[in-house]
Amino acid sequence: MAIKNILMKELEIISVPESKVSKLKGISSDFIKSLKETGLKAFIGGSLAKGTLVVKDKQDIDIFVVFDYSEDILKLGDILEKMNLPGKLKKVHGSRDYFHVVCEDVILEVIPVVKNSDPELAENVTDVSLSHVRYVAEQIKKQPELADEIKLAKAFCQAQKCYGAEGYIRGFSGYSLEILVIHFGSFVKFLKGISKDRIIDPMKYFKGEREIMNELNSSKLQGPVVLVDPTYKFRNVCAGLGLETFGRFLEVSKDFLKGPSLEFFKKEEVDVEELKKFAKGKKARFLELEFSTDRQEGDIAGTKMRKFFRFFVSELKKNGQEVLRQEFDYDGKRKMAKGYLVVLEKAEIEVRGPSVGLKEQAEEFCKAKGDKVFKKKGFWWWGKGVSVEKVLEFVKRFEGEMGAGIRNINYQ
Q: Rounded distance, CA 364 to CA 323, Å?
């Protein structure tokens, strides 16, 4: 099937029916009206405002509540608690606390922002969200076909686990995908262009790449892509994009362009049986890990558990264990996650000690390590016994410190 036909078919699958969009707008408008009755000024944001909604089990709609001063934000929680809300109220912790109103088929994300005319003076990144909405909406108004192209980009990245700025994903944010598709002109052009062009300045604020690298804060240049925010020239919208996630994105993009298929838009679950089969073929060990945390579900919980998973993987590698495959699986909704590893285990690794010429240190080393010491290339070495279990025993000491841990592990 030609790529054009595949994309048209995918749009039929992911586009939200107009009747549903109207219903969501109605729910949002009614909620905003009730907020205004309390004296609060609010606006619809996110994908609903931009016309880029894609089908979800439960839609989330951004409602920006605008305050003149940051101290006034503290009133929001009390006001919401006294209102007759269309759903259950839930406080969510972040760089600035916000609220969920969980309804039957939609979640209203109530996000407080401080009114500002200069992004440089914004106290929090959410304070520039309204300017993001305006920019994207204006571009789509000029070229309405971009809305569908953005939907395709979001669906593709969601399926390939490259969507979301959360710490446990480190993927493309929705806003970054919108800018990139607008800049390149279409979903396919974005896939092709991003593999070659890694420093992007859509509004041409800077004279060239060198000036961008000189002017932006070094902390904003760490990621694999530099995307200058069209609404604020000193912000890299892709600063949170991880190298590992971007590498995976480039790989699947290349595969899709070579052999386009609807399968690339379907999110696949971790194939546990395939991993077990792979491990058996390599004569390696298969590990299924269950992680837990007491932190807030979502970004905070996921990031804590992912960090602990990476810590375990790092320690395995330090101890000479070859990690052939690794998968981390978190749905963003609970305080539990799963990790899967295929490890080619070694029973012993060589650890270098002092130089043979350092007699005092050498004597202490040999005495401490016993009969497993030997000389090699002018140094004393020690044959250290290692195993997955020993590494696990070591990393579990840090569970409290890291805010996450392994509650269960199955070996094969």
A: 34
Expressed in percent and rounded to 5, the helix, strand and coil fractions of the chain are 45, 25, 30
Residue indicated by tokens 């605008």: 66
Distances (CA, A) of 137 to 174, 187, 355, 382: 13, 17, 67, 64
**Is the distance from CB of 299 to CB of 166 less than 8 angstroms?**
yes
Q: How far, in Å, CA of 11 to CA of 84, rounded?
A: 37
Residues 195 and 246 in one domain: yes
Residue 156 and residue 209 in one domain: yes
User: For the segment 159-180, what is each residue's pLDDT rounded down to a tens digit?
Assistant: 999 999 888 899 999 999 999 9
Question: Does 6 map to a domain?
Answer: no
pLDDT (tens digit, 9 = 90+) per residue, 386-407? 899 999 999 999 999 999 999 8
Distance from C-alpha of 35 to C-alpha of 44, rounded to nearest angstrom: 12
**Domains identified in the chain, total number:** 4
In angstroms, rounded to a whole number, what is the distance separating the alpha carbons of residues 383 and 349?
6
pLDDT over 80 (residue 217): no
DSSP 270: P
For the CA atoms of 246, 251, 253, 255, the dihedral, rounded to the nearest 10 degrees, stands at -170
70 lies in some domain: yes
Q: Give the contacts of 222 (CB within 8 A, at least 6 positions apart).
A: 239
Q: Structural domain of residue 368, as residue ranges? A: 348-385
In this predicted structure, what is the pLDDT of residue 31? 94
**Is residue 232 one of the residues assigned to a domain?**
yes
Which pTM was predicted?
0.86
